[in-house]
Amino acid sequence: MTPFLVETSLVSMAVTAASDAVTRIHLGARAPRPAVAPLERLIAHELAEYFEGTRTRFTVPMTPEGTAFQLGVWNALEQIPYGETRTYGDIAKAVGNPGASRAVGMANHHNPIPIMIPCHRVVATGGKLGGFGGGVDLKQRLLQLEAEHSALFAR
Question: In this model, does residue 138 exceed pLDDT 60?
Answer without folding.
Answer: yes
